[in-house]
Amino acid sequence: MKLLFHCGLIFCAVSSVAEAFFDNNEVFGKNRQFIGVRVNEILEAKYPNLHLILVNPYNKSQTAAFTLQNLTTIYSNSWFNPTRNTVIYAFGFTKNIDDSLSQTILDAYVKRGGHNIIVIDWSAYNGVTVADYPAAIENMKVIGELVGARIAMTFRNFATLRFHLVGHSLGAHLVAYINRGIPKSFLTPQIPKIIGLDPAGPYMYNSSYNHHPLNASDASTVLVIHTDMIAFGAPVKCGTIDFYPNGGGKTEVQPGCPPLDFVDQFVATNFCSHQMAVYYYAESVANKGTNAFAATKCSSYDDFVAGKCRSRSQQMGYSAREYMTGDFYLQTNKIAPFDRGSLGVTYSSSTA
Ligand SMILES: *[C@@H]1O[C@H](CO)[C@@H](O)[C@H](O)[C@H]1NC(C)=O
Ligand SMILES: *[C@@H]1O[C@H](CO)[C@@H](O)[C@H](O)[C@H]1NC(C)=O
Ligand SMILES: *[C@@H]1O[C@H](CO)[C@@H](O)[C@H](O)[C@H]1NC(C)=O
Ligand SMILES: *[C@@H]1O[C@H](CO)[C@@H](O)[C@H](O)[C@H]1NC(C)=O
């Protein structure tokens, strides 16, 4: 069937020469066969340097950049294999694909193997200095929704490709917006799994701004690792499965991190706890151990410390059991390897 592009004032739509009709953002042919997704090319044009980067699953330093417009050609790239699982990673405020956090995630997935690895490169729009933060939030929302429409159009069946979206800090909210950009009538209207690594706290949870942070309805499974609830991370539970390693950074920094400097709030060392979510998660990806990051369901960190919860019913990170929802606690080591295996559910003051 021949497809044409028709551009209206706001949307450009893929439509067939045969009759087509629209249902929300989906386009169907006259026999209700799926044709495409309406995408907003006018908004897309505001982000010419937005790329989706496909990483060679065997060598992370080899990459191919796609724009939203040529993303569909990803199927002809040999680094993309539709029989593999697919992970999409979004880094946070001021970060990029070359920084140590992104590289740690890439190393972990390359080591584990079996994944198509895609990075949302929004580094042209995610800020340079602290003053850029409000603008980065606004870009994050628009970029997330634009990517959502395009990945719906490109991949169509998220279940088959076993998609999971991973985001750190503002990237955790970005992946929520990716899910929100998928047409609600789409054949797979929901991303199966989102992993939020210490979702950004500042502004996102302040009612003075009408922001809509990542929440439990943004994917079938929303797994969150909280490491800095006191400063740069989300101050509240926001997933279907929430992990609070070492208490989630609610009252104290992560083990091995320097004390917070309250005078110079943005000094690099103050981001230590916020970044630990990435290091814990990456280790859980690379480590296939059956008891890796064992975690216990518990109603509070105090109860966990008091030894009231030792179920080992959950594992933090990649291997989390999706049907086991709720709040989970564990202890980690101060230095890598952070995993304490099944010991992690038994609080030890000498580890803290
Ligand atoms: C990975 O790719 C880089 C860049 O192309 C190359 O220099 C390097 O040798 C490759 N590494 C391996 C292990 O093949
Ligand atoms: C996609 O388009 C961009 C911009 O035109 C180009 O730089 C890039 O090489 C294209 N990617 C592929 C895989 O065709
Ligand atoms: C929320 O934002 C307002 C407006 O910028 C600010 O005055 C207030 O201190 C913030 N509240 C918190 C808890 O950060
Ligand atoms: C999650 O966020 C979306 C988008 O803001 C909103 O529509 C939905 O009601 C929220 N769900 C919950 C459980 O808060």
From TrEMBL:
InterPro entries xrefs: AB_hydrolase_fold (IPR029058), Lipase (IPR013818), TAG_lipase (IPR000734)
Keyword Secreted set for record: yes
N-terminal signal peptide: 1-20
Domain Lipase: 46-338
Keyword Ribonucleoprotein appears in the UniProt entry: no
Main localization, broad class: secreted
Highest taxon of the lineage: Eukaryota
Gene3D superfamilies found in the cross-reference section: alpha/beta hydrolase (3.40.50.1820)
Keywords associated with the record: Secreted, Signal
Any one annotated GO CC term: extracellular space
GO molecular function: lipase activity; serine hydrolase activity
Annotated GO biological process: lipid catabolic process
Annotated compartments: Secreted
Family of the protein in this entry: Belongs to the AB hydrolase superfamily. Lipase family.
Protein name listed in UniProt: Lipase domain-containing protein
